[in-house]
Amino acid sequence: MNAYLRFAILATSLNVAFPASAEEAIGTVNFQANCAEHLRPDVDHALGMMHHMMYTQALAEFEAVAQKAPGCAAAHWGVATSILQPLWGTTPSEAEITRGREAIEQARQTVEDEREKLLIEATAAFFEPETGQVRERLSGWIAGMEEAYQAFPEDLNVATLYALSRLTRALYADNPQALHDEAERVLRAAWETEPTHPGAVHYSIHATDADGRSANATKIVDSYGEIAPEVPHALHMPSHIYVRLGDWPRTIEWNRRSADVARDHKEGDATSFHYIHAMDYLVYGHLQRGEDEAAETVWKTAQANGPHQGNFPGAYHLASIPARLAVEARNWDAAAAVTPREPGYISWDKFAWPDGLSWFARGLGAVHSGDLDAAREAEQRMATLVEEAKSAADARFAVYLEVDRKILAGWIANAEGNPERAVELMESAGELESTVEKHPVSPGALLPPYEALGDLLLSLDRPTEALAAYEQSDQTWPQRYNTLQGASRAAEEAGDTESASQWRQRLQETAPETTRKTGA
Q1: pTM for this one?
Q2: Is residue 133 pLDDT above 90, yes or no?
Q3: Distance (Å, rounded) from C-alpha 294 to C-alpha 291?
Q4: CB distance 162 to 149 below 8 Å
Q5: Cα dihedral 99, 100, 103, 107 in deg (nearest 10)
Q6: Domains of the chain: residue spans and CATH
Q7: Phi, psi of 270 (to 5 degrees)
Q8: Which residues contact 448 (CB under 8 A, 6 or more apart)?
Q9: CA distance 116 to 60
Q10: Which H or E element spans position 225?
């Protein structure tokens, strides 16, 4: 029995995705691994999948090469680096840490090339510390990638991974703009050298998936689906920019294509999270066009194609979609009926932010339905989750939860007869939201704070202030259906007929065939 067949049997028994064919289009990667020449295309394909953040597939492909050629240091490095996943805020399990350390040790024993040695040591710096804090692990990898880039700045794979490390550092930096600037420069230079390099294209999207940057690289963004037409994440990634721009038809189209491909990708017995990830973005796009029935159909289809992968993205989307459907439609009965911590096969204790989304929707439904006891219970549960999230891999999780908690607390204060306190809480939520970027797992907030503030001020018969709140929300979350509808109503009630007409026109362009009936 040859080594590749033995690996295939092992991969099946461990529920590991079997490697894709090296013939599958993934863009242009020419790593020139210090391995047997006939194995270099396999290493290139695996590295391309890693650049596409198809980490499970990359891991399986690198392992297949390592089985064939135990002396290929790049394959062992790829096994470890595929576990790293720097932007996703995931905490590796003890088994994954052990696996990464073993791969690094094998890589060190076989490496001869200086470039590969630097990459191996960068990844080693992630796995070697004895710490439960992912941020501490990432800092070593970030420093190692800087050393590798200084030594080999012209190498496209080193350069693009270095840019990824800059974006990773930006997650925790007081001044992320400078890091995004540097990453954009490095990635654009790589893209101009090789326009079909998957790292140059993919990481450019992450570099511009930030406030004020979304229009910086639309040409690069639009090229992604042609580079890797059968890679689910490649087909999804352009929508990160289109949700920032409020371009819902493109958001819908890209994610429909991604979901169609991802549906057949399995992680053991579960459907890969790339599928439910695309479906949540698809739901969000339909809702912003007021296409509530289409969004509901997407959710029913997604449920029928489960069970879904139980990692952080899977948990997030399985919580967010039912919550989003209810809150966007302002269907408060449905929101109050949202059941937290479903489905039961998800380990919800690991995922405070996703758990909090259900409680947020449930609390909003309760407070708008007059059940203050249930609303207060939800708000208290969210406060507990905020504290739990402070020790999460991604420091932003606690902030996202606290923004939502403040919004819910504001509605509770209003229901208790304290509207000024309600306004203060929602303004505070908006200020807090401005301190973090949108997380890439999410297409958008369930209820943006300034949109919520606009709804509140309208209910208090303060339309001029409400219009200002909607305008502010539109700057961060453009072309949202409820923002446009709320702004047009606020302008009309304020007697600003010209502004009301402009907002109605934008709403008509965004949702030309829909007139959703909603109310705060």
Answers
A1: 0.87
A2: no
A3: 5
A4: yes
A5: -170
A6: 3-212 (1.25.40), 231-309 (1.25.40), 310-510 (1.25.40)
A7: -105, 155
A8: 433, 473, 476, 477, 480, 483
A9: 20
A10: helix 224-227
Task: Give the side-chain half-sphere CA count within 13 A for 153.
Answer: 5
Predicted confidence band of residue 515 (pLDDT cuts 50, 70, 90): low
Q: Which of 52-56, 373-377, 512-516 has the highest mean pLDDT?
A: 373-377
Q: What is the CA 401 to chain-centroid distance, rounded?
A: 16
Sign of CA dihedral 133, 134, 137, 140: negative
Tokens of 186: 């490095």
Q: What is the distance between the terminal CA atoms of the chain, rounded to a whole angstrom?
A: 66
pLDDT tens-digit profile of 340-375?
999 999 999 999 999 999 999 999 999 999 999 999
**Cβ of 251: how many Cβ atoms within 10 Å?**
26
- Can you tell me the distance from the alpha carbon of 3 to that of 22, in angstroms, rounded to the nearest whole number? 17
Residues near 362 by beta carbon (within 8 Å), at least 6 away in sequence:
335, 336, 337, 338, 340, 374, 378
Span 257-272, pLDDT tens digits: 999 999 999 988 999 9
Q: Which of 5, 39, 37, 10 is nearest to 22 (CA)?
A: 39
Confidence band for 173, pLDDT divided at 50, 70 and 90: confident
Confidence of residue 172 (pLDDT cuts 50, 70, 90): confident
Q: Can you tell me the distance from the alpha carbon of 390 to that of 71, in angstroms, rounded to the nearest whole number?
A: 42
Chain-centroid distance of CA 391 in Å reads 19
- Look at residue 16 in the predicted model and tell me its pLDDT: 35
Say which amino acid occupies 187.
L
Position 518 scores a pLDDT of 56
Nearest by Cα to 394 from 90, 35, 59? 90
pLDDT at 388: 95
Q: How many CB atoms neighbour CB 155 within 10 A?
A: 19
The two tokens of residue 390 are: 């402070």
> Facing residues of 294 across strands?
none
Q: How far is CA 334 from CA 30, 263, 324, 338, 459, in A?
A: 52, 28, 10, 7, 21
The DSSP letter of residue 266 is: E
Please give the Cα distance from 460 to 456 (Å, whole number): 6
Nearest-10 crossing angle of helices 396-415, 419-433: 170
